[in-house]
Amino acid sequence: MCADFIDPENDPFQWLEDVEGGEALTWVEQRNRVAEATLQDEEFGPLRDSLREILDASDRIPPVTKRGDWLYNFWTDAEHPQGIWRRTTLESYKSEDPEWEILLDLDELSETEGTTWVWHGASVLRPEQASEEIPGYSRVLIDLSPGGSDADVTREFDLNTRCFIDPEGGGFYRPQGKGGLGWIDAETVYASTDQAVVTEDTPVTTSGYPRIARLWRRGTPLIEAEPIISVAEDDMLASAGYDSTPGYERHLATRVLGFYDAETYLITYDDAGEPTLTLIDVPTDVRVGFHRDLIFFAPRTEVTIRGVVLPGGSLYIADAEEFLHGDPELTALFTPTDSTSLQGITATRNLFALTVMDHVVEHVEAHWRDGEGAWRSQRVLTEITGSLSVGAYDSRESDQIWITANDFLTPASKYLGSLAPVIDGEPESYDLIKRAPERFSAAGLSAVQRFATSEDGTGVPYFLIGPERVLNGPETAPTVLYGYGGFEISQKPGYLPLVGKAWLEPGGVFALANIRGGGEYGPRWHQAALRQNRHLAYQDFAAVAKDLVASEVTTTAQLACRGGSNGGLLTGNMLTQYPDLFGAVVIQVPLLDMKRYAQLLAGASWRAEYGDPETEDWDYIRRYSPYHLLSNGAQYPPVLLTTSTKDDRVHPGHARKMTAALESLGADVTYWENTQGGHGGAANPQQQATMNALIYRFLGQRLGL
Prior knowledge:
The chain is an alpha+beta fold and 705 residues long. Among the domains are: 14-52 and 439-703, 3-Layer(aba) Sandwich (Rossmann fold); 115-279, Methylamine Dehydrogenase, Chain H (7 Propeller), CATH 2.130.10.120.
């Protein structure tokens, strides 16, 4: 299906790509006023306030990261919409009302500096990286984004004085851009920056990421930082880092050639400080990692390494020194089946905890070496139900793990456990630390998994959450179908408090589709919908939509679809290729103009996913470019498009131009653009609540909930 309403070579709305241009922003302001006047009805305010209450709730479970004797957490609430960075002890954390020590208040910082700062993370200096003048756990590299954009700054922070260290006084400072800093020791960092610090004509790749990673010593200008590794302009990015684990210290560098291909190098320095890079000789689509004395390999496709065939989606492990300098034995820790995929790898001191998905239902396996060095395995955490998230408590010192469990109708529970007993043949142990309360009434609600059949006969799983009287008949209800279908990202069951409050509690149904392009069945499920096969993801999603109507869960007039980013490309294709299946469509922070996507912001990095429209790939890309599938005379369902002016990942021009084109066709289109928020669409809980309330009022008005 191809239409010719928009000429790819003569785009009438390209002027809307001028992100901060006066004419474009006036256009945005006019449509925002119309959207808010329409959607901010009498139900909007109470809904927004109830969503804000959920986002600001003081009894949420704080995620924490252990460094030394402290657990660190970043937290937002009604009093701190931009957030506070704080810490507490484990014993205090276990209590109902932990005592937190505030380290940095972003609301105060934002007011003082006149910039809306958004937290992007922190890296604490470890004791083995310290010096006499700068003790361990006393300095931090903090990443902050103005307004929520991907481009951020890195500033050095003193935990003792609670102050940023002035660059003029020797503090590390990375100017705003895409990149980062990482500790080597108290006086040295690895730096990736998109600033032109030396004389290169192009300090960034065509994807907008740093071409060069450097070694930067305190007290020297960034312009003098020593280049360590670089990539070609048309590659993706260069990076370097340091693993300071005592006894297993390693400098590593990476050439990211594309979204799914990279080269990993070991860096060694001679007595004069000159670096030597040694390539880890494996195919570029194999992810390489180190943990203590081990090296592991996770291939995306079937590869042969040192004479051993590794299936795509598997995980193999070997002794690092033997692999680098001798004849290693490669051992399989995970090999996929038709129904299983590896979703997560958690390393503790002596074990690996693998999160495995079987038909989109998760379990956890522990793998360890016995006294003779042979690898053993056992399924663990069998008494904890729901979707599981596992993380190491301190991978250097213990075999303790955090476990978070939840499902569509059950809020999160957080456990702290130990896998150490498994090594001795005993069951693992864990204690319940936190349990989140319900955020919406689940009375009368049920969650089920079903399968639809796509055009080519492939079974496509999806989850359905809603009133039992609807799921089991005979009633129908307004239904929102959500999907993503790209970049090997899995959509799995999880507690959705905003969906529950805004949509399920009032009587709606929510469906989550596990279409091809995602990672639910590992790399093969993703690769099935790459590039010229992208249409299979859209056929899968359409099959789920048809199944929802055929099974009388809903009707076409009551069915909407929603997706963001790559999911916005998905719902854009639903609008243009399957308009008869939906009563409303929501498209958020989307890709839509697939002719120009690779020329806009980070778009070039996604050519491995979609193809290159500047080559003959356009012959198939045009078949799923929603902007170019618009047609005179077509009847489109009502559509809401949202984006963010500060989105520097997916260009807001996609949503702007699609809206303008739909308007010129006389379609029922609503547009809302947040002036902050980055690719997430919102920079704080207040903006998140407003954005979601607008979306659900659009859906409620259009579907009659």
